[in-house]
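Structure tokens please, single chain.
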Amino acid sequence: MKIYPVVHLRSPEHALKLAEQAYGAGADGVFLIDHISPRDPNVLTTAYNRVRSELGQSAWIGVNYLALSPSGAVNHMADMFEQSGIDVLPDAFWVDDGSEDITDITELRQRRKVSSEYFGGVAFKYTPTYTDNPADAARSAIEYGPNIDVVTTSGPGTGYAADVRKVAAMKAVMGDRELALASGVSISNIEQYRPYVDDILAASSIETESYSGIFVDRKLRDLVQAAHRE
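Here you go.
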């Protein structure tokens, strides 16, 4: 499994510090997310620029513009790139509700030349499509998955583990396509997801507390090692 620690940023400097910590622990990349000023996407863009400038073009860096829909995130990134607000597009963008913009998101990404991978939430916490029912989650994966690069699901809330039966049902209908899990994965339960999950997005289990934006280095390193275990 690949693992992407989620950086709950406080400032550009803070985002860089945690990204460096994650890379130092062997993570495959990081996602940056801003819970403090989510309605101002420029705050996250500024932090992204800081991390990118220090870690270089080869670093894998994703973003989650919490207040933007999939099309809003695509347009914002494309505008910033065209206006030289960013020099390199993020490697990925993550949107909690992948049921939005399903009719035109693929065409928009092509037209705006945004090649960043799209991690789209399906049966995801705090969205209208959330469910823990395996059959319903599988149907959502079939319905919304074709418009998403990496279907991303979760448990019922931040820090809460997803029902393994739900995750297994989603993977069964997705086949070889990537499935990401973005809540409640810890050193104590990661093994039960291994047969079904390709990517782990982790925060609560490696922070001092949820949304603290402070990684506990030992927890971070242990989870990275567990994710990479064959």
